[in-house]
From TrEMBL:
GO molecular function: actin filament binding; ATP binding; calmodulin binding; microfilament motor activity
The protein's name in its UniProt record: Unconventional myosin-Ib
Domain Myosin motor: 40-726
Organism superkingdom: Eukaryota
Keyword Repeat recorded: yes
């Protein structure tokens, strides 16, 4: 191991390894800074001594003044909003805290995020991060930091990076539509958000699910003075182009719209135009289509323009008041944006229809009721749009795979709110914070108690305030405030806010946390700070006074049915989907649940979800109300410390012992303080810690031994250990320097000694080598002379032997020549005698032949003369017999003879000029005479038919089938698919892999019982990410089969009867989609996408096979855009032209759940 001691500024350190000293440079990122090293104040408040509220605040202020905004309470992180940018969130900081123990470095939100992520990844524990605090305390920024850290430290890769980018980019979209400027915060979340981030077994993100809670929709129509409406309205007007604003029928000036507060329209340091561009880019990254963004902005514009509709009163004959719209131009523009009939929406603002069983009653609305209807429509429209946005984002970021997932939840919910005028929204928000405080107390105490019990340490009970009594006051199903509010809303008769308050005064008067001047309790009768139309609750964060005005209406959250039906009748796709209850076919007379009951159920589900996960807490504190840096308002912070229960949390952590640490870490940090444990301890870590503490003579009452950890009771003991360690490190550093200097001198001496030995060895080697070379040269000269003498002697002997052999050969040759000449002379004489006899015999045979020839010629002349005379005689007889007939029909005979002769000549010449026997030959000899025109044409047709028949007669049955397939391919793809022309010259072979002959596919051949129509290798496209994988494509008479290319294992078997259609593009690519019948077993995962160079042959054979099997023709769609079914989603496959990375193969890229782009050359 290395013992590190900082010596120089360039981080030069020394280490002891196996008795040797080493020096090395340590990178900046490797230098470890403990929680206890060089800290400002106390990093962990559990170690604070003495522990009082004043010292706790002083410690927070001291660290805040030195830009240390994070402090621990055990595993809880306290974050003080600095209201300025600090250089503590750089990539270097991320790497510094990555894979480090929680207490190893100074307090930081990254430490908590890393601890949660590693527990999820390594220990398979689902995590949740609870971020609480007042509005303006920095909760939203804390959630962003947690998500950005997790995104930075988890895995890499194209798919993983896309998921991370979508998760991060969902924040700007939700902030634009759900955040607003308030008096306390320029970017206050006006809704609650809980995000579950899902990870795979490696810790890589797969997707996420967002839950939203209670959007403050009343802000759409009215904002307190000094506050703004939701960001998106200002961003659209500031950042929208002129064409966009014209399309949405909007003006750029804020003062044109009644729903926008003018006193705080501009916020210092906020660029709404740039933020609008950021939001549009984020929506594109998350997966919104361009038409969806356009629909969303149209709804936003419609909400903005609803506020400009004004009403005027009118009196009817019967004396009832009614209202009319003053300027119908705004209404007309709204209807154009929403695709609505102007008369329908105008009537919905003027009349209200009430249905009860079989009766319908229509009443007019006065001006106040018309304004209420307008504002209710604006609030509901925006609220439902926000819910749709959350669902649409969830659809894009949800995990695609169905494997088991690990989950990390991040809760960013509105903080506790106390305003001058607190209404129903503040009541609901504070109720949610009460529930979070309750679960914080329960889980914190439970975790601490379980650890002490697990470690065998005695537990000392600490008194703390349990806010369960406040939660019971609000959520009790019979006597709770929410239950009574629902009961009052559902009660028949006259229901007002005053009747609700009266009921509260009757039921809750004796409750110790409820205050009202009109209650039965006499304590508050003379309390002038409590108006008559208010009630007050003592929350854990302090007393909050609520004005009951608007409680009943906001809880009812009613939207007139006429307005719902009017919205459903629009031609706007998005608006129509937001108001399903407006559909007359689905109309229900059942009263919808109240806002309070819905929120109560949502909070209960959230609490149940949080209790199933391991909690991690971030408690955010706001240092001042001015939103200014460097200001620490002690009174404000003290109030937050009290209601957050931070002091109780510290006391719980210090109940038994102030500090705890695993035995291994403790021994590793302090083993240099004991001679027995330094430098190596060979036994158990617990025994080593015991030996260490015994030698240091620390009193036994100051610590206890747990099963896996050492527990230190007093912080002073820990500080003393740190002081001893610091002094010991200085001594060890001096010792290491001394040993290092000795090692360095000894190393130099050994190096010099080694150098001297090497020089001496090289010198001796040089002289010995020189002597050896001289001896070698002399020896070589002597050897060469001896070898030369021996070679010359051998040469003389060989020459003598050769001369003897040549003499004998010459004598033998002369003798054989003489013998041969004598034999030749004898043969010549014998041949001369034979030649004379042959010549005489030849002359005699010639003489006899000439005599016979002369006799035959004389006989032939006599026979010829007789034949000529007989022929002349027969001709004379014929001429005499037919002379009379010939003279009567001479003209006709000559004509017929001439025609017959011309036809004979025509056919004989045609025989010589006939074209080749190829059916594709187009040439034909020209006609010689005009009267043969029809004959010439008919003869051409007959010849072509005969030629085609002869050509067909040469075909085998297999070749006939190939030409039929070629003809089918021509009908399907000619002039439709650009790839078709390349396939015309290619023969259709079918079995390209020779499955039956290839031993590699013996197993696959045995599994296929039917005749193989086609066997080829295709590329199957992954439905989730567009990547390709090679597959064997087998087509039989009943099925098509996909098998692995390497092993031959069958992956899928699809009956051809389940195939409904095939889709291809018009380009030269080889991509095609096979559509399966919905509901079939094969269609469980959706349609198939393939690429192949033999696309024409595959689809033609598939088309013919299905036709022969079902006697029905499947549809072959040829288009550059078509839809495929992936699982439960309809995905558009769109072909675009661009540069190719993989040669001519098309490149597929999954943009989102609804679009797959295919790049073709």
């Amino acid at each position: 191991m290395y013992l590190l001691a900082p010596f120089t500024e360039d981080r030069e350190v020394f280490g002891v390894t196996h008795g040797f000293i080493h020096k090395r440079k340590m990178p900046k990122s490797e230098v470890k800074t403990s929680l206890l090293d060089n800290m400002i104040g106390v990093g962990d408040s559990v170690l604070l001594e003495p522990l009082t509220e004043d010292t706790f605040l002083e410690n927070l202020k001291n660290r805040f003044d030195h830009s240390e905004i994070y402090t621990y309470i055990g595993s809880v992180v306290i974050s003080v909003n600095p209201y300025r940018h600090l250089p503590i969130y750089t990539p270097e900081k991320v790497e510094e805290y990555r894979n480090r123990n929680f207490y190893e470095l100074s307090p930081h939100i990254y430490a908590l995020a890393d601890e949660a992520y590693r527990s999820l990844r390594d220990q398979d524990k689902d995590q949740c991060i609870l971020i609480t605090g007042e509005s303006g305390a920095g909760k939203t920024e804390a959630s962003k930091l947690v998500m950005s850290y997790v995104a930075a430290v988890c895995g890499k890769g194209a798919e993983v990076n896309q998921v991370k980018e979508q998760l991060l980019q969902s924040n700007p979209v939700l902030e634009a539509f759900g955040n607003a400027k308030t008096m306390r915060n320029d970017n206050s979340s006006r809704f609650g958000k809980y995000m579950d981030i899902e990870f795979d077994f490696k810790g890589d993100p797969l997707g996420g699910v967002i839950s939203n809670y209670l959007l403050e929709k009343s802000r759409v129509v009215k904002q307190p003075r000094g506050e703004r409406n939701f960001h998106i309205f200002y961003q659209l007007l500031s950042g929208g182009s002129e064409d966009l604003l014209k399309q949405l029928k909007l003006e750029r000036e804020f003062n044109q719209y009644n729903y926008l507060g003018l006193d705080s329209a501009k916020v210092n340091g906020v660029d709404d135009a740039a933020n609008f561009r950021t939001v549009k880019n984020a929506m594109q990254i998350v997966g919104f289509m361009d038409d969806e963004v356009e629909l969303v902005l149209e709804v936003v514009a419609a909400v903005l323009k609803l506020g400009n509709i004004e009403f005027k009163p009118e009196s009817r004959v019967n004396g009832l008041d009614e209202s009319r719209i003053q300027d119908k131009n705004e209404l007309k523009e709204i209807c154009e944006l929403l695709g609505q009939d102007q008369a329908v929406l105008e009537r919905a603002f003027s009349f209200r229809t009430v249905e009860a069983k079989q009766e319908k009653v229509s009443t007019t609305l006065n001006v106040a009721q018309a304004y209420y209807a307008r504002d209710a429509l604006a609030k509901n429209l925006y609220n439902r749009l926000f819910t749709w946005l959350v669902n649409r984002i969830n659809e894009s970021i949800k995990a695609q795979s169905k494997v088991r997932k690990k989950v990390m939840g991040v809760l960013d919910i509105y903080g506790f709110e106390i305003f001058e005028n607190n209404s129903f929204e503040q009541f609901i928000i504070n109720y949610c914070n009460e529930k979070l405080q309750q679960i914080f107390i329960e889980l914190t105490l439970k975790e601490e108690q379980e650890e002490y019990i697990k470690e065998g340490i005695e537990w000392t009970h600490i008194e703390y305030f349990n806010n369960a009594i406040i939660c019971e006051l609000i959520e009790n199903n019979t006597n709770g405030i929410l239950a009574m509010l629902d009961e009052e809303c559902l009660r028949p008769g006259t229901v007002t806010d005053e009747t609700f308050l009266e009921k509260l005064n009757q039921v809750c008067a004796v409750h110790e946390r409820f205050e009202s001047r009109m209650s039965k309790s006499s304590r508050f009768l003379n309390d002038t700070t409590l108006p008559h139309n208010c009630f007050r609750i003592q929350h854990y964060a302090g007393k909050v006074m609520y004005h009951v005005e608007g409680f009943v209406d906001k809880n009812n959250d009613l939207l007139y049915r006429d307005l719902s039906q009017a919205m459903w009748k629009t031609n706007h796709v998005l608006v129509k989907s937001l108001f399903p209850e407006g559909n007359p076919a689905k109309m229900s007379l059942k009263r919808p649940p109240t806002a309070g009951s819905q929120f109560k159920a949502s909070v209960a589900t959230l609490m149940k979800n949080l209790q199933t996960k391991n909690p991690n807490y971030i408690r955010c504190i706001k240092p001042n109300d001015q939103k200014a840096p460097h200001i620490f308002a002690e009174a404000l912070v003290r109030h937050q410390v009290r209601y957050l229960g931070l002091m109780e949390n510290v006391r719980v952590r210090r109940a038994g012992y102030a500090f705890k640490q695993p035995y291994e870490s403790c021994l590793e940090r302090y083993k240099m303080l004991c001679s027995q444990t330094w430098p190596h301890w060979r036994q158990g870590s617990r025994d080593g810690v015991k030996v260490l503490l015994t030698e240091l003579q620390i009193p036994p009452e100051e610590f206890s031994y747990g099963r896996s950890k050492i527990f230190i009771r007093n912080p002073r003991t820990l500080f003393e250990l740190e002081d001893l360690r610091k002094r010991r490190l200085e001594d060890l550093a001096t010792l290491i320097q001394k040993i290092y200097r000795g090692w360095k001198c000894r190393t130099n001496f050994l190096l010099m000694k080694k150098s001297q030995i090497i020089i001496s060895a090289w010198t001796k080697r040089h002289f010995q080598r020189k002597k050896y070379l001289q001896l070698k040269s002399v020896t070589l000269i002597i050897q060469s002379y001896i070898r030369g003498w021996k070679a010359r002697k051998l040469l003389r002997e060989l020459k003598h032997q050769k001369r003897c052999e040549e003499s004998a050969t010459t004598i033998a040759a002369y003798w054989r020549g003489f013998q041969a000449r004598m034999e030749v002379r004898r043969l010549k004489e014998a041949a001369m005698h034979k030649h004379a006899i042959a010549v005489i015999w030849a002359y005699w045979l010639g003489y006899e032949a000439r005599r016979e020839l002369k006799r035959l010629k004389e006989e032939a002349r006599r026979k010829h003369a007789v034949a000529v005379i007989w022929a002349y005689w027969l001709g004379l007889k014929v001429r005499r017999e037919y002379r009379k007939f010939f003279r009567a029909n001479a003209g006709k005979k000559i004509y017929e003879f001439t025609i017959q002769r011309i036809m004979q000549k025509y056919f004989l010449e045609m025989k010589k000029k006939l074209p080749s026997m190829s059916p594709t030959e187009k040439t034909w000899p020209p006609r010689p005479y005009f009267f043969l025109d029809d004959t010439h044409t008919e003869l051409k047709r007959i010849f072509h038919l005969w030629r085609c028949k002869k050509y067909r007669d040469q075909f085998t049955e297999q070749k006939k089938a190939i030409f039929e397939e070629k003809l089918e391919a021509s009908e399907l793809f000619k002039d439709k698919k650009a790839l078709y022309t390349n396939s015309v010259q290619q023969p259709f072979q079918g079995d390209y892999l020779e499955i039956s002959k290839n031993p590699k596919y013996q197993k696959l051949n045995g599994a296929v019982e039917e005749k193989i129509v086609l066997a080829d290798v295709v590329n199957k496209i992954n439905r989730a990410n567009g990547k390709v994988a090679p597959r064997i494509f087998l087509l039989t008479q009943s099925n098509f089969i996909l098998a692995d290319q390497k092993s031959g294992q069958i992956k899928s078997t699809i009956p051809v009867m389940d195939i409904t259609s095939v889709s291809v593009s018009k380009q030269t690519d080889g991509l095609f989609a096979v559509h399966l019948k919905e509901g079939s077993t094969a269609a469980a995962k959706g349609d198939f996408l393939f690429t192949s160079d033999r696309l024409i042959e595959i689809i033609t054979k598939l088309y013919r096979t299905i036709f022969f099997k079902t006697n029905q023709k499947i549809n072959v769609e040829i288009n550059n855009e078509f839809l495929v079914q992936f699982n439960q989603d309809k995905v558009c496959v769109k072909f675009i032209q661009g540069a190719q990375k993989n040669g001519n193969l098309p490149t597929c890229k999954r943009k989102n759940n609804r679009l797959l782009e295919v790049t073709v050359p």
